[in-house]
Design brief:
With 321 residues, this protein is α/β, with parallel strands linked by helices. The protein contains twelve helices and twelve strands. The protein has a nine-stranded mixed sheet, sandwiched between helices. Strand 1, helix 5 and strand 2 form a beta-alpha-beta unit. The longest helix has 13 residues.
C-alpha cells in the first residue's frame, strides 16, 4: 500500500521531523525584522503554544504593530541623510539602538533615512575643507555615546562645524561633552577638554562627577539608571517632550562643570535641562540654531518602533525639506 505524498511544505517537514504540521511556522525572508512577529502570529503558532501549555490567552491587537511595519516598508518620496560621527565603524551592532531610534523617527516623519558612517579618527587629521566636504554630504549629524581619546578631536571638529554652520546636531551622552568642548574652544577656551581625555587641561568644562573621583576604572560604579530632568519652559526640549519634567536613563561618569554654565549662551548654546536634585546639566540646546540638542542621558534606550523618542523625532523633523 502506497503512502499518500505530503501536500505542503509543512507536511513534508512534519514527515521528516515528527512535529505536527500545525506546530511548524514558516518564516520567509522579510524586508524588515519587524515583520517577523506578524508572520509568526499569522501562522497561528501562538495558539499552538498556548494550547500545549494549557494557557488561556487573549488574542493580541496588532493593528499598531502592523502600522509600524507598513511605515517601515513604505517608500517615501523624501530621503534624509544622517551622518553618525563615530569610531567603531566595523560593527553596525555597536550603535544598533541609535540606528533603530533614527529609523523609527524617520517612519514617524514619513521620510526615508540614509544613515552614513563618518569616521571620527579621520576627521582629526583632515583639513577644514575636507571636514566640510564630508559633513555637507549629510543633512544632520548624530554624535553617539562613547569613551576614550581616539576620535575625540574628530568629534569636536564635527561639533564645531555643526555649531557654526547651522547643521542639525543630536548629541548622546559623549555627544553632549563634545559639543560643550567645541563651543568653549570657539569662544576663548582653546585648551577646553574633558579630563577623561586630558587630565591636565586648564579648562575642564567636562570633569569627573562628585563621588566618582578615583573610581574611573571600577566598572559598574557609574551613574546608572533613571534620573529626573527639569526643562526650561521656553526650551525646545520642553516643546518636543510636551512637558517640563521627565525621567531618562543614564550611563556616565563625567559631567558638564557648573561653573561654566553661565557662559554657555555667549558660546551659542544653553543648558535647557537640569537635574532638579543636584543641578547637573542634562540637556543643552543651540541658540539661534535650526536644531542643536544634546543630552547627558541616552534617549535611544527609551525609543520604540511604535513610539519614537521625542529627541529623535525632533531631529529628523528638522532635516525635512
Amino acid at each position: 500500500m502506497k503512502t499518500k505524498p505530503p501536500e505542503s511544505i509543512k507536511d513534508k517537514l512534519s514527515l521528516f521531523t515528527g512535529v505536527g504540521p500545525e506546530a511548524i511556522a514558516l518564516l520567509p525572508n522579510a524586508e524588515s525584522i519587524y515583520q517577523v512577529p506578524l508572520t509568526l502570529e499569522d501562522t497561528g503558532i501562538a495558539d499552538v503554544i498556548s494550547s500545549k501549555l494549557s494557557l488561556n490567552v487573549t488574542k493580541p491587537d496588532l493593528r499598531e504593530w502592523r502600522a509600524v511595519v507598513d511605515k517601515a516598508l513604505a517608500k517615501p518620496s523624501q530621503t534624509v541623510r544622517v551622518g553618525v560621527v563615530a569610531k567603531y565603524l566595523d560593527n553596525a551592532d555597536t550603535y544598533m539602538s541609535v540606528f533603530e531610534a533614527i529609523r523609527a523617527a524617520a517612519w514617524a516623519n514619513d521620510v526615508a533615512v540614509e544613515i552614513t558612517w563618518i569616521d571620527a579618527p579621520k576627521l582629526e587629521t583632515a583639513t577644514d575643507d575636507e571636514v566640510a566636504a564630508e559633513l555637507t554630504k549629510v543633512d544632520g549629524i548624530v554624535v553617539p555615546g562613547g569613551f576614550g581619546s581616539r576620535g575625540v578631536e574628530g568629534k569636536i571638529r564635527a561639533a564645531q562645524y555643526a555649531l557654526t554652520h547651522k547643521l542639525p546636531y543630536l548629541g548622546l551622552c559623549y555627544g553632549l561633552h563634545m559639543m560643550v568642548i567645541a563651543a568653549a574652544r570657539l569662544h576663548g577656551y582653546e585648551d577646553a577638554n574633558t579630563t577623561e581625555v586630558n587630565p591636565d587641561t586648564t579648562a575642564a568644562v567636562i570633569d569627573t562627577m562628585e563621588g566618582q573621583k578615583g573610581k574611573e576604572n571600577t566598572g559598574g560604579t557609574m551613574r546608572l539608571g533613571d534620573y529626573a530632568c527639569h526643562f526650561e519652559a521656553d526650551s525646545l526640549a520642553a516643546k518636543l517632550y510636551g512637558t517640563q519634567d521627565i525621567v531618562e536613563r543614564h550611563r556616565h561618569r563625567y559631567e558638564a562643570m557648573g561653573q561654566y554654565v553661565a557662559e554657555y549662551e555667549s558660546w551659542g548654546i544653553r543648558a535647557s535641562g537640569m537635574n532638579p536634585d543636584n543641578g547637573l546639566v542634562e540637556v543643552i540646546e543651540g541658540v539661534d540654531h535650526p536644531f542643536l540638542m544634546a543630552s547627558q542621558y541616552h534617549p535611544e534606550f527609551k525609543s520604540r518602533p511604535n513610539r519614537p523618542h521625542p529627541m529623535f523625532q525632533g531631529f529628523i523633523a528638522a532635516l525635512k525639506k
